[in-house]
Amino acid sequence: MCGIAGLYYSATPKPVDPARIQAMADAQAHRGPDGSGVWTAPGVGLGHRRLSIIDVAGSPQPMSSADQALTVTYNGEIYNFIELRTELQALGAHFVTGGDTEVLLHGWTAWGPAMLGRLNGMFAFALHDSRRQCLFMARDRLGVKPLHYVELSDGGLAFASELKGLLAHPLLRREPDIRAVEDYMAFGYVPDDACLVAGVKKLPAGHSLLIERGKSVPAPSRWWGVDFSRRATGSVKALEEELVSRMRDAVRSRLVSDVPLGAFLSGGVDSSAVVALMAEASSKAVRTCTIGFDEAGHDERAYARQIAERFATDHRERVVAADDFALIDTLVAAFDEPFADASALATYRVCELARENVTVALSGDGADEALAGYRRYKFQAAEERVRALLPVTMRASVFGKLGGIYPKADWAPRAFRAKTTLLALAEDGAEAYARSVGVTTPTLRAMLFSTEAKRALGGHRAEDRYIRAMRDAPARDAIDRAQYADFQHWLPGDILTKTDRTSMAVSLEAREPLLDYRFVEFAASLPVSMRLRGGQGKWLMKKAMERYLPKDILYRPKMGFVTPISAWFRGPLAGEAGALAKSRLLSQMFDTRTIERIATEHRAGRAEHGRTLWQLMMLERSMQRLFG
Fold it and tell me: What single DSSP character describes residue 590?
């Protein structure tokens, strides 16, 4: 895994200072501590930081073709590179390295942009073609690997894996985008179609960008998207066998490595399934690692240990304190933009533990999105059944009024939050789902933002992107639409950003076999009843894995780690909560009296505002680094 950076001048081929490219790459040294490289030519410069995984001694980057016409800087892994090498050799290609990077050079020569459809992997790369006078950038189907870019005042386009790579360029104007603040306050992360630094863009998952000399920078082009409109046919048994086959292929393809490899093991269904299939495919004991917590209600070590013993893994575990807030500044530095998913603390710790013994770790990320594993899908399905029984006007009248008078109970599990459910039933399904994936409600955001900030937003509302995605989804069912929207926003913006930044912060490569695009495409084609049945998400996967895993692993309630944020802001972080209202940066966008009020109410126990205070604190610290 690596970090990439570069500059491209499409209008006129201005000279590029290699030192500037080096600085942009070195800002991401944690992504590639094993080597670095810079290549420049008139109007273009490419930089690279390398974490050696395949062909450790060879494959330096940036890499050029034999005739020097093509040069690429690349971050990722192409899991089918050996098959592609064979195919390209049959077309006359001559390879001089043993890694996967060179496949991009020969693939571009043979197929041009169409080569993307042949790649199975996680990647972000930039390829310069001196003959065609262009720069081609692309990102993998699901958005596992990041790529940021920005047009500069001198006519150049700068790009980098992480925002900090762009921040190393002196011409980047550091101004906050108020719309991204709205998005962050709504979801707890800055989505991939936004950036806290105005003008910076993220190449969307499954998109490419072709910039030609003498032409302006176009909009990215989509080259892949998940399709929920098709339906697989066959018996439950046949689909079950196909699902296991696709999972097995996905895991095995991700075991190729020239450095030590292991897996995260939480004791949940997804990571346990990955470990089971790794053990099946490996002649050696699989290396696994688990983080435990000093709060018994959230400690899954016993379940992880059960799986480790079942498959005779080389298992390591470590206990961390639930009040592990000392990591806050480390995470702020790793993410650049504010990120309020508090599970990032635990993810960082398990990556840190894994890196002590391995350089590559497989995770179970992706199964919940692909196979409707989140509880919110179950609620959405139930609410849609009720919506279908009553006309819109009656629902708005009856449920809206009931929801308005019902007492608020955010502290309770959603199944018992009648106010939330009643208000959701009064709304359109897409509107209700968009709110359900949020953190801070539109009502509270309206109270928090200052009059000037609301004017600057110009009607921009974070939830609208979710609603558009659901209404435009290639789908047949409400659950299809919800999953599709999560693939567009939640997965790349939260889950994959969290895994990428925390793993790369400790120079660890994380691989997600359950996000193999062939597995995802198959899962999206399954009838909804095979994804979600009887209140059980991932129904077919759990049934299929009964041959590998005990039922108390497959069918136990999700536990997960719940960071005690609320307690922190009434205890060790109470001072932080009080100081938020005095922040110069926050006062430029928010009503400080409202911040002071919610901090006071929370500290006194009169109201529950822990998540909002956490969001504001992470935003303030990120803004200090970016704009302070």
Answer: B
Distance CA 50, CA 97 (A): 16
Q: What is the mean pLDDT of residues 232-246?
A: 97
Residues 391 and 247 in one domain: yes
Handedness of CA 79, 508, 324, 616 (dihedral sign): negative
Q: Among all residues, which ones are annotated catalytic?
A: 2
Q: What are phi and psi of 595, to 5 degrees?
A: -60, -45
Reply yes or no: is the peptide bond before residue 60 cis, omega within 30 of 0: no
String of b and e for 552-564 (b: at least 16 CB within 10 Å)? ebbeeeeeebebb
**Binning pLDDT at 50, 70 and 90, where does residue 300 land?**
confident
Give bridge partners of residue 76 from the DSSP assignment. Answer: 123
Angle formed at CA 25 by CA 194 and CA 512, multiple of 5 degrees:
60
> How sure is the predictor about 416, in pLDDT bands with cuts at 50, 70 and 90?
very low
553 and 450 in a common domain:
yes
For residues 364-393, give the mean pLDDT: 87
Find the domain containing 525 and state its range.
226-563
In angstroms, how far is the first alpha carbon of the chain from the final one?
31
Q: Which helix (H) or strand (E) holds 464?
A: helix 463-471
Spatial distance between the Cα atoms of 458 and 156, rounded to a whole number of angstroms:
29
Tokens of 606: 């009169």
User: What span, in angstroms and rounded, lies between the C-alpha atoms of 304 and 266?
Assistant: 5
Same domain, 181 and 245: no
Same domain, 153 and 196: yes
Two tokens, residue 271: 């990571």
Most confident range (mean pLDDT) of 289-303, 330-344, 411-425 is 330-344
Rounded-to-integer distance, Cα 451 and Cα 594, Å:
12
Verify that 178 and 307 share a domain, yes or no.
Answer: no
Q: Residues 134, 23: one domain? A: yes
How many angstroms separate the CA atoms of 628 and 619, rounded? 12
Whether residues 167 and 233 fall in one domain: no
> In 31-187, where does DSSP find H-type helix?
81-90, 101-111, 163-167, 178-187
| Short-list 527, 608, 620, CA closest to 565 | 608
Reported as a single tens digit per residue, the pLDDT across 475-534 is 999 999 999 999 999 999 999 999 999 999 999 999 999 999 999 999 999 999 999 999
pLDDT value at position 396?
53
pTM strictly above 0.85? yes
Q: What mean pLDDT value characterizes the chain?
A: 92
SS3 content of the chain, % helix, strand, coil (to 5): 50, 15, 35
Residue 516 sits in the same domain as residue 558? yes
Residue 353 lies in a domain: yes
Choose the final residue of a domain: 175, 195, 222.
222
Torsion region of 234: left, alpha or beta (phi above 0 gives left; psi -120 to 50 gives alpha): left
With 50 as the cut, is the pLDDT of residue 411 above it? no
Q: List, in sequence order, the alpha helices (H) in 175-300.
A: 178-187, 236-253, 269-281
* Secondary structure (3-state) at 83: helix
Burial label, 64 (beta-carbon count in 10 A; 0-12, 13-18, 19+): middle
Domains identified in the chain, total number: 2
